[in-house]
Structures are given as C-alpha cells and as structure tokens.
Amino acid sequence: MATTAVRPEFVVDTRGRTKSVLLSVSQYRRLLQHLEDLEDALELDKAVRTGKKFRDYTEIHVGLRKAGRL
After folding, report:
1. Residue 38, CA distances (Å) to 24, 41, 70 in order
2. Burial status of residue 34 (CB atoms within 10 A of its CB: 0-12, 13-18, 19 or more)
3. DSSP assignment of the chain, as one string?
4. Is the pTM of this model over 0.90?
C-alpha cells in the first residue's frame, strides 16, 4: 500500500493552541480506509494466533452452497 500525503489544516485559538484539524473529504476517506485496513490486518493476526482449526475455502464454499447461502 502506497503512502499518500495528508495535508491537514490546523485551527488554532487566540493563544495559538491547536483546536481542530481540517482534512479534505478525499483525505478523510483515505484515512478511514487505511484505518479499516489496519483493523482487518490486526483481526487476521489475532485469528492466526488464537485459531485452533482452519477450514479450507473449498469446504466452506461447498457448505454455503448446500445451505443455499450462495
């Protein structure tokens, strides 16, 4: 995944303290997508570490077809 430059704008109060950050909608959406990807990767890592038994994709696919879910 390539990194993309984020160009935030900072909103400061009269004392110069940062109060808010402004992002374009496209930057915000990219940031959310990156966070979702990271969450997925962390969940996968957890599943691999804690998983007791993994089923083959073909086995799952056949089971879903038999159950009428595909």
Report:
1. 21, 5, 28
2. middle
3. --------EEEE-TTS-EEEEE--HHHHHHHHHHHHHHHHHHHHHHHHHH-S----HHHHHHHHHHTT--
4. no
- Given phi > 0 = left and psi -120 to 50 = alpha, else beta, which region is 19? alpha
Q: Judge contact between 21 and 11, C-beta under 8 A.
A: yes
Q: What is the pLDDT of residues 1-52, one digit of tens each?
A: 456 688 899 999 999 999 999 999 999 999 999 999 999 999 999 988 898 8
